[in-house]
Design goal:
By secondary structure, the chain is an all-alpha fold. It is 50% helix and 0% strand. Keywords: Signal.
Protein backbone atom coordinates (compact mmCIF):
# COMPACT_ATOMS: atom_id res chain seq x y z
CA UNK A 1 0.00 0.00 0.00
CA UNK A 2 2.87 2.37 0.78
CA UNK A 3 4.10 1.97 -2.79
CA UNK A 4 0.67 2.93 -4.16
CA UNK A 5 0.41 6.06 -2.00
CA UNK A 6 3.90 7.23 -2.87
CA UNK A 7 3.19 6.70 -6.57
CA UNK A 8 0.05 8.79 -6.30
CA UNK A 9 2.22 11.81 -5.63
CA UNK A 10 4.53 11.14 -8.54
CA UNK A 11 2.36 9.62 -11.24
CA UNK A 12 -1.16 10.72 -12.04
CA UNK A 13 -1.81 7.52 -13.95
CA UNK A 14 -1.70 5.26 -10.87
CA UNK A 15 -4.88 4.72 -8.91
CA UNK A 16 -5.22 3.66 -5.29
CA UNK A 17 -7.81 0.96 -4.55
CA UNK A 18 -10.00 1.66 -1.55
CA UNK A 19 -11.68 -1.26 0.22
CA UNK A 20 -14.78 -0.35 2.17
CA UNK A 21 -13.90 1.38 5.40
CA UNK A 22 -10.19 1.67 4.58
CA UNK A 23 -8.32 4.94 5.11
CA UNK A 24 -5.58 6.60 3.12
CA UNK A 25 -3.49 6.80 6.26
CA UNK A 26 -3.50 3.07 6.86
CA UNK A 27 -0.08 3.04 5.24
CA UNK A 28 1.81 4.95 7.88
CA UNK A 29 4.75 4.83 10.18
CA UNK A 30 7.28 4.02 7.45
CA UNK A 31 10.42 5.93 6.59
CA UNK A 32 8.69 8.29 4.17
CA UNK A 33 5.21 8.15 5.69
CA UNK A 34 3.39 10.12 8.38
CA UNK A 35 3.10 8.72 11.86
CA UNK A 36 0.09 6.51 12.45
CA UNK A 37 -2.79 8.38 14.12
CA UNK A 38 -4.30 6.99 17.33
CA UNK A 39 -6.59 4.05 16.72
CA UNK A 40 -9.63 5.90 18.01
CA UNK A 41 -9.12 8.71 15.45
CA UNK A 42 -9.18 6.49 12.38
CA UNK A 43 -12.91 5.90 12.23
CA UNK A 44 -15.58 8.56 12.39
CA UNK A 45 -18.25 7.28 14.79
CA UNK A 46 -20.86 9.40 12.99
CA UNK A 47 -19.90 8.61 9.39
CA UNK A 48 -18.17 5.23 9.12
CA UNK A 49 -15.18 5.30 6.83
CA UNK A 50 -11.81 7.04 6.55
CA UNK A 51 -11.38 9.94 8.94
CA UNK A 52 -9.46 13.11 8.23
CA UNK A 53 -5.74 12.87 8.86
CA UNK A 54 -2.68 14.89 8.00
CA UNK A 55 -1.04 12.31 5.79
CA UNK A 56 -4.07 11.80 3.58
CA UNK A 57 -4.77 15.52 3.27
CA UNK A 58 -1.14 16.10 2.28
CA UNK A 59 -1.44 13.53 -0.51
CA UNK A 60 -4.54 15.24 -1.90
CA UNK A 61 -2.93 18.68 -1.75
CA UNK A 62 0.23 17.51 -3.50
CA UNK A 63 -1.76 15.87 -6.26
CA UNK A 64 -3.70 19.09 -6.83
CA UNK A 65 -0.42 21.00 -6.86
CA UNK A 66 0.84 18.56 -9.48
CA UNK A 67 -1.90 19.82 -11.81
CA UNK A 68 -0.20 23.21 -11.84
CA UNK A 69 3.13 21.69 -12.86
CA UNK A 70 1.59 19.67 -15.70
CA UNK A 71 -1.21 21.86 -17.03
CA UNK A 72 0.21 25.36 -16.60
CA UNK A 73 3.27 25.33 -18.78
CA UNK A 74 4.56 27.16 -21.86
CA UNK A 75 4.36 23.84 -23.68
CA UNK A 76 0.60 23.52 -23.18
CA UNK A 77 -1.69 26.02 -24.87
CA UNK A 78 -4.50 27.58 -22.88
CA UNK A 79 -7.08 25.72 -24.95
CA UNK A 80 -5.80 22.36 -23.64
CA UNK A 81 -5.59 23.33 -19.99
CA UNK A 82 -9.26 22.95 -19.05
CA UNK A 83 -9.30 19.29 -20.00
CA UNK A 84 -5.92 18.78 -18.35
CA UNK A 85 -7.29 20.11 -15.07
CA UNK A 86 -10.38 17.94 -15.46
CA UNK A 87 -8.19 14.83 -15.59
CA UNK A 88 -6.45 15.80 -12.37
CA UNK A 89 -9.77 16.34 -10.58
CA UNK A 90 -10.90 12.91 -11.73
CA UNK A 91 -7.69 11.40 -10.39
CA UNK A 92 -8.21 13.03 -7.00
CA UNK A 93 -11.75 11.63 -6.93
CA UNK A 94 -10.48 8.15 -7.83
CA UNK A 95 -8.02 8.35 -4.96
CA UNK A 96 -10.72 9.05 -2.39
CA UNK A 97 -13.08 6.52 -0.76
CA UNK A 98 -16.84 6.45 -1.14
CA UNK A 99 -17.48 7.13 2.53
CA UNK A 100 -15.98 8.91 5.50
CA UNK A 101 -14.79 12.46 6.00
CA UNK A 102 -13.24 12.85 2.56
CA UNK A 103 -16.49 12.09 0.73
CA UNK A 104 -17.44 15.80 0.39
CA UNK A 105 -14.11 16.41 -1.35
CA UNK A 106 -14.68 13.48 -3.68
CA UNK A 107 -18.14 14.74 -4.59
CA UNK A 108 -16.79 18.24 -5.21
CA UNK A 109 -14.04 16.90 -7.46
CA UNK A 110 -16.44 14.74 -9.47
CA UNK A 111 -18.86 17.64 -9.90
CA UNK A 112 -16.07 19.99 -10.96
CA UNK A 113 -14.71 17.45 -13.45
CA UNK A 114 -18.17 17.02 -14.97
CA UNK A 115 -18.63 20.76 -15.34
CA UNK A 116 -15.19 21.19 -16.89
CA UNK A 117 -16.02 18.36 -19.27
CA UNK A 118 -19.19 20.18 -20.30
CA UNK A 119 -17.19 23.33 -21.05
CA UNK A 120 -14.68 21.43 -23.18
CA UNK A 121 -17.43 19.53 -25.01
CA UNK A 122 -19.35 22.72 -25.78
CA UNK A 123 -16.25 24.39 -27.22
CA UNK A 124 -14.41 21.36 -28.57
CA UNK A 125 -12.02 21.80 -31.47
CA UNK A 126 -12.66 18.65 -33.46
CA UNK A 127 -9.75 19.41 -35.77
CA UNK A 128 -7.11 19.72 -33.05
CA UNK A 129 -5.25 16.54 -32.08
CA UNK A 130 -5.34 15.39 -28.47
CA UNK A 131 -2.04 15.71 -26.63
CA UNK A 132 -0.44 13.44 -24.03
CA UNK A 133 2.26 15.33 -22.14
CA UNK A 134 4.29 13.59 -19.47
CA UNK A 135 3.28 14.36 -15.91
CA UNK A 136 5.04 17.50 -14.73
CA UNK A 137 6.92 17.27 -18.04
CA UNK A 138 9.49 14.96 -16.54
CA UNK A 139 11.20 12.74 -19.14
CA UNK A 140 10.72 9.53 -17.16
CA UNK A 141 7.15 10.25 -16.04
CA UNK A 142 4.09 8.53 -17.44
CA UNK A 143 2.06 10.27 -20.08
CA UNK A 144 -1.30 11.80 -19.32
CA UNK A 145 -4.48 10.39 -20.85
CA UNK A 146 -5.48 12.22 -24.06
CA UNK A 147 -6.15 15.91 -23.44
CA UNK A 148 -8.65 17.68 -25.69
CA UNK A 149 -8.56 21.26 -26.92
CA UNK A 150 -11.24 23.90 -27.17
CA UNK A 151 -11.24 26.13 -30.23
CA UNK A 152 -8.78 29.00 -30.32
CA UNK A 153 -11.54 31.59 -30.55
CA UNK A 154 -13.33 30.20 -27.48
CA UNK A 155 -10.26 29.54 -25.33
CA UNK A 156 -10.30 32.73 -23.24
CA UNK A 157 -14.03 32.62 -22.54
CA UNK A 158 -13.98 28.90 -21.84
CA UNK A 159 -11.08 29.38 -19.43
CA UNK A 160 -13.04 32.11 -17.64
CA UNK A 161 -16.00 29.74 -17.26
CA UNK A 162 -13.66 27.03 -15.97
CA UNK A 163 -12.19 29.48 -13.45
CA UNK A 164 -15.69 30.01 -12.03
CA UNK A 165 -16.00 26.26 -11.60
CA UNK A 166 -12.72 26.18 -9.69
CA UNK A 167 -13.73 29.10 -7.46
CA UNK A 168 -17.09 27.49 -6.66
CA UNK A 169 -15.42 24.15 -5.96
CA UNK A 170 -13.08 25.87 -3.52
CA UNK A 171 -16.04 27.35 -1.61
CA UNK A 172 -17.89 24.03 -1.55
CA UNK A 173 -14.90 22.29 0.01
CA UNK A 174 -14.35 25.03 2.59
CA UNK A 175 -17.96 24.76 3.70
CA UNK A 176 -17.93 20.96 3.91
CA UNK A 177 -18.17 19.02 7.14
CA UNK A 178 -20.03 19.29 10.41
CA UNK A 179 -17.52 19.89 13.23
CA UNK A 180 -15.46 23.00 12.32
CA UNK A 181 -13.00 22.52 15.16
CA UNK A 182 -11.96 19.13 13.80
CA UNK A 183 -12.40 19.54 10.06
CA UNK A 184 -11.77 23.13 9.06
CA UNK A 185 -7.98 22.94 8.60
CA UNK A 186 -8.10 19.85 6.39
CA UNK A 187 -10.79 21.27 4.15
CA UNK A 188 -9.12 24.67 4.12
CA UNK A 189 -5.81 23.19 2.99
CA UNK A 190 -7.46 21.26 0.17
CA UNK A 191 -9.52 24.28 -0.87
CA UNK A 192 -6.37 26.42 -0.97
CA UNK A 193 -4.75 23.93 -3.34
CA UNK A 194 -7.84 24.10 -5.55
CA UNK A 195 -7.63 27.88 -5.55
CA UNK A 196 -4.04 27.68 -6.75
CA UNK A 197 -5.30 25.77 -9.78
CA UNK A 198 -6.63 29.08 -11.10
CA UNK A 199 -3.14 29.80 -12.43
CA UNK A 200 -3.74 27.07 -15.01
CA UNK A 201 -6.63 29.01 -16.52
CA UNK A 202 -4.92 32.37 -16.90
CA UNK A 203 -4.21 33.41 -20.46
CA UNK A 204 -0.66 34.43 -21.34
Amino acid sequence: MRRFLTSALLALGLAVLWPAGAALAQSCGGIEEPACPPEHSRVDPVAPGPALNTGSTRIIVRLLEGANDTCDDDRIELRYRIDCLRLYYLKVAELLPDNGDYLPVKKAMLDAAARLDAIVTANLDTTAPAIRPREKHKPAAKRMPPIRAVTEESAVQAAAEAAKVVEETELIIIRSGGDPARRTQHYTDIAAAVEENLVILRSA
